[in-house]
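Protocol step 4 of 5: obtain the predicted structure for the target chain.
Materials: sequence only (see below). No template structures provided, no constraints applied. The aim of this step is simply to have a reference model before the mutagenesis design in step 5. Sequence pasted as it appears in the construct record:
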Amino acid sequence: MIMRRIRNQFFKELEQFQRDRLGVALAFILPVIALLIIGFAIRLEAKNIPLVVRDLDQSTLSRSYIEQLYATNLFVPAEWQGVRFPDAIDRGTAQVQVTIPPGFAADVNAGRTGEVLVVIDGSDVINARVTQLAVDGVTLSAVQRALGEGQLGELEQFAIVAQVRLWFNPGRQESLFIVPGSYGVILAIFPPLLIAIALVREKEQGTILQLYASSLSAVELLLGKSLAYMLVGLGEAVLLFIVGLLLFGVRFIGDPIPLVIGTLIFLFTGVQLGLIIGIFTTTQSAAVQAIGTIKVLTAFLLAGFLFPLNSVPFPFSVASYLVPVRYYIELCRDVFVRGSGWFGTWYLIVAMVLLGIAEFGIAWWGMRRMQLSS
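Step 4 output (structure tokens):
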């Protein structure tokens, strides 16, 4: 009997969803658009940084140093048109300005310190750090070459060479980092948004009173609605995975079963939050604003999508453990990049289960309170 009432509520929600053309478009068109924008627009690797060089030494070593700078494929040449040293930085025509002083090669070959003056635009902190590391690496390489060719070549025996190898993503494809993470961000936003809008619409139209007058309990009502929008969310997930495969070449690595189970649990947690927001808001605009504020901010800032979680300061670092998308993004990146299987993902699923149970309890309390107050 209980299962029949849950099933009836499930099919009722699906029928209402199918009649809402705007809701269907919101469910299946906007997530794909969001994936395309995130997948193609977000780039974390610094490229095409304008660099201007003033070579006052005009030696073979200085020209080799300049060639190595541009050989990193990180910089593009910029023309220096100023009259004072950091003029290109001040005018914004370059983000990096390198000056090689006279006597640079002579100092290096004589065993003295060859100084190169580098000014980096620090207004973009991320590019500034990447640029500094690149310039340091080129400088070390140039000096090592000079020592190998000059009188101090015998010091090469003291050099330390690190053989570095990138694991899991040797080609440094940004799509393997961005796209799996975007799955979590998109699925964290749209299913909760859909169910919150649907619940608030029933409150605005007064049709929810019919549910209160029926024999449905709060648990049966919540489960019926949750299962319907979990199915919609599952359709969104499959669509996103297909688009990610066709356009970005992101495919399963290893066992996909953890992702299947984890996706269902993650959708359950998201739908419960959507129900909570729908219960405690009275207008659709308020529900949309609540979803946008809670889900978007936490998905982008407290889930490790773009920024490493170990850089998040206290107390937000603790709050991030209460964000389900944090665990789902890590699960997606494991299944699509690392492929460690159950051994490396079981705790992520357990964490999402615990959060889902807690959110369902809050939604049940809110729904029960609404039924009693009506």
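Step 4 remarks: The first strand starts at residue 49 and ends at 55. The radius of gyration is 28 Å.
Proceed to step 5.
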